[in-house]
Amino acid sequence: MTSLFIATTAAHLIALLLVKRYPVSVLFLILASLFQTVLTALLLLNDSGWTFNAQNACLVVSWLSNIIVIGGQFRLKTVRILLSAIAIAVMAWIYFWPLPDFSKPYALFIDLHITLSILAYSFLFVSSLVAINLAIQIYRLKKNAFMSADLSLSSLLTNEEKLFILIVIGWLFLGLSLLSGAIFIDNFFGNQMGHKIVFSILAWILFSVLIAGRMLKGWRGKKAIKLNLIAMALLMIGFLGSYLVIDYLL
Question: Are residues 91 and 4 in the same domain?
Fold first, then answer.
């Protein structure tokens, strides 16, 4: 297991250090994602059930985010820097401060709800990274920074379109997650994860407003970025905050 942690971290580190050399950097990001796939499976799944805590939740979201960025062929340097840096931080957290393993038995409908939730968080997490990249692009353009292939109005508009595609996909998965939880999980709002549901609903509403604003009013730029990041912050408070409270305080 230690060798797998080292291999995954090393591949992410090389991808980070060579981020300006896109083909080589992406090659190592793919390699890191392959290692991370095996690591995620070993930490998350076993014969008796699955282990889902704050650390494994972050690991799964990081892993899926890698796949989304690779599959979507995102050339955005800032996104890839943040992606690898976060993955390295998650690796260190799990390796040096591991949480106790408590397996939960597999249950079809609950597992479906969790899968939809993870897909939603992953797509929306990548959207927040793209939003940060867009904010940096807008700032540099306003400062009349040296124009390059990745710093132009055309590039900005293309990345903005990708941002809203990610938001819509994540919003759909989040809506399905909330719906499946309400249908299949007993006492969905009354258990110890109730505040997570509230924050998720608030985030879903904000993403709905953002999507409607884009379609009806053509929202873009700073307004879209701010709403995206606020909604994602609510989602992270509910998602990660809930697991941190359960794992470290309860």
Answer: yes
